[in-house]
Amino acid sequence: MNDLITIGAFSVALHPLLPWVMIAGLAGLYGALLVFALARRARGTFWRVVAGLLIATALLDPSLVKEQRAYQKDVAVILIDRSPSQNLAGRAQETNAALAEVKRQLAAFPDLDVRVIEGGGGPDTAEKGTELYGVLQRGLADVPLRRLAGVITISDGQVHDLPAVTGPGSGPGGASTVLGFDAPIHLLLTGNPKQGDRRLMLTEAPSFGLVGKPVEMKFRVDDLGSDNLGSAMVTIRRDGQSLPPVTVPVGTEQTLQLPIDHGGQNVFEITAEDGPQEITKANNTAVLAVNGVRDRLKVLLISGEPYPGERVWRNLLKSDPSVDLIHFTILRPPNKQDATPINELALISFPIDELFDTKLKQFDLIIFDRFQHLGILPEEYFYHIVDYVKNGGAVLESAGPSSAGQFSLYRTPLSEIFSAAPTGDVVTKGFRPALTDVGKRHPVTADLAKSDADSAKWGRWFRQIVATTRGGNTLMTGADGLPLLVLDRVGKGRVAELFSDQLWLWSKGFEGGGPQAELIRRVGHWLMQEPDLEEEDLRATVIDGRLEVERRSLGNQPKTVDATTPDGKVEKLPLTDIGHGKATAQMPAPDQGLYRVSDGAREAFAASGALNSLEYRDPRASTEPMAQLVSATGGGMQVYEESGWPTLRRVSAKSERAGRGWFGLKQNQDYVVTGIDQSPLIPAWAALLLSLGAVLLAWKREGR
Fold first, then answer.
1. Is the pLDDT of residue 665 over 80?
2. Has this prediction a pTM greater than 0.90?
């Protein structure tokens, strides 16, 4: 068994000739004799000690072991910030010049390997900010950290993923513990730290609002780096249309009412005028998308008579959580005469004045289900309904056999808003509802069947009112290809006509049934102007750093659309037809702000990035964010525009790591052992001869 005693690159190996217990026993006995000799003040004790040591050396058989070491190069890291804020105010040029200078100085050190790590960019930089520390950790994954000489960071200082370091050392929160290495981190600051900037921040922003009611937004305009508080003009645009501007004091939170005038996405662009100092105008504008929703859609359902489909209509509408339904069924029309006294009837009178005069405009949709004109409604109220539709209301007429007769609604002033009219004939034979070519493209019916084979599986109906169309869009046909479902726009409102009262057969599952619930839901929501069901529409969204465009149309699609980026550049995007009346296009959208898409007739808007971009929240060059980390690692900071390039030098592990005008790179003196040289420290025979000589000298001294 060998034992090593190491001193620097040298080690002494022991090869005991006897077990350690015997050597220890002999040493103890010999030591006791020496103590006895000292106590008797015997002469020659010194030589006896020398002899004992020489004998012990012979028994231990020591040899000198020398390691053959190959010293490894240290690693110097240049960490480059390539975030969007580094492209402002000439910082990119400064960064490239600094990188070249640091490389030039590092090339003078033959014992250094140089690694350049770049990061800070990416599609989510606007939201998450500049993340350099994570990039550094990944870049050092294959580097032995004991060889790290230092990190030279070239940045504007705005780094947002720095670890929490409380101080130097390896204790809790210490730099070595948190970082996992003991090396200096230096900062070479790009940009002018004295330059200020104006920004607009949304402090409270709603994501949705009720149509017809304003939402409240809170914001603040700040002049960073300036103590002068003045005022700033703020302009507001909604879906590309300008709203009245407002003037607000700088540095004070303000409240603004934003009108929501339609369902779906309302895109607001809020812009503060240029400030006295500007690094970038990207943070002068905030884009807010507010989703307009309706506060419970109010539907009035009037059934002309009891029949099996009446309850189906009621159940379908009641199952929609966004619908408030008011349902009346005419049980005793005026033409029904019997001897029952009115005070004995368990019925309520039909509140025609309240429904069609006082509260008519409160309804989003009116449904006439097999309703007959039997003198229930005065002709004046039909004119009210016509005006109601032209001003944005909606009517759905579900025709029954009576619709083909003299009491049809088509013989009232409502005929002005109907785009199809019955001829007076009724077809009573089995037929399967089918989608027309327009119906296969219209968003109301396009997704009801993926193919003709799917619609061929729908159950049959057995009655249809024969009608002729003079406008609108026929989405479904029935017996003999006759119009079954017709939709039309009238003024600001919408009208739908269903020329059969046998929708209820689908709900009963007759011959497999059909998509009656989805059909009624889609027709109803189209009538109430649901944005997702617009047949002529252009939409744009930004998802994962890409602008995605969707265009819907019942006719031929254009070949391209124009996309305008936040910096004003216009690109033509080719559209790809994907069927069902849809065409799509996409392009990269790396910039934060508002993207505009136009097909020549319509415009769509898409907001990209976070409400308050972390990257541009404070675009000033500053040493403050990194100051604690740099100090804890013993590094230094230098502003290029003020002090120029720092001088790089190698320093020992215990020396200062930075000073005025210079950055230090630690010498780690890491090595690997390539071989071992071993030679006896003193031969055993030499030790025995010397010990014998020492004994003789001791006897000689004792004999005097």
1. yes
2. no
Q: What is the pLDDT of residues 239-267, one digit of tens each?
A: 888 999 999 999 999 999 999 988 888 88
Phi, psi of 179 (to 5 degrees): -80, -30
> Looking at the DSSP assignment, which residues form a beta bridge with residue 205?
none
Beta strand segments in 295-419, E = 297-303, 323-329, 365-369, 394-398
- Quick one: tokens of 100? 């070249």
**What is the rounded CA–CA span in Å between residue 702 and residue 45?**
9
Task: Measure the CA–CA gap between 374 and 304, rounded to whole angstroms.
Answer: 10
CB 145 within 8 A of CB 180: yes
The residue-averaged pLDDT of 479-492 equals 94
- Side-chain-side CA neighbours of 500 within 13 Å: the count stands at 26
450 contact partners, CB below 8 Å, separation of at least 6: none
CB 206 within 8 A of CB 290: yes
Tens digit of pLDDT for each residue in 305-330? 888 878 888 888 888 887 888 888 77
> DSSP per residue over 106-155, as a string?
HTT-TTEEEEEEEE--STTHHHH----HHHHHHHTTTS-GGGEEEEEEEE
Higher pLDDT, 77 or 556: 77
Q: Are 668 and 653 in contact (CB under 8 A)?
A: yes
Instruction: Give pLDDT, residue 640.
Output: 80
The answer, yes or no, to whether residue 396 has pLDDT greater than 90, is yes
Cβ proximity of 632 and 151 under 8 Å:
no
3-class SS letters over 233-279 = EEEEEECCEEEEEEEEECCCCEEEEECCCCCEEEEEEEEECCCCCCC
Strands 365-369 and 297-303: parallel
Q: Please count the other Cβ atoms lying within 10 Å of the Cβ belonging to residue 251.
A: 15
- pLDDT, residue 2, reads 57
The DSSP element (H or E) to which 684 belongs, if any, is helix 684-703
Residue 517, SS3 per DSSP: helix
- 6-12 long-range Cβ contacts below 8 angstroms, 24+ apart: 9/66, 9/67, 9/69, 10/64, 10/65, 10/66, 10/67, 11/64, 11/65, 11/66, 11/67, 12/62, 12/63, 12/64, 12/65, 12/681
Instruction: Give the three-class secondary structure for 651.
Output: strand
Residue (of 374, 369, 376) closest to 310 by Cα position: 369
